[in-house]
Amino acid sequence: MTQFKIIVGVFLVAAVAGIAAWYGLQRDVPATTTDITNPRLVAHGQKIYAENCALCHGVNLEGQPRWDRMKPDGKLPAPPHDPSGHTWHHSDQRLFLIIKEGLATEEATDMPIFGGVLSDHDIWAVLTFIKSTWPEDIRRRQPIFRSVPAS
Question: Cα angle vertex 85, ends 79, 90, to 5°?
Answer without folding.
Answer: 95
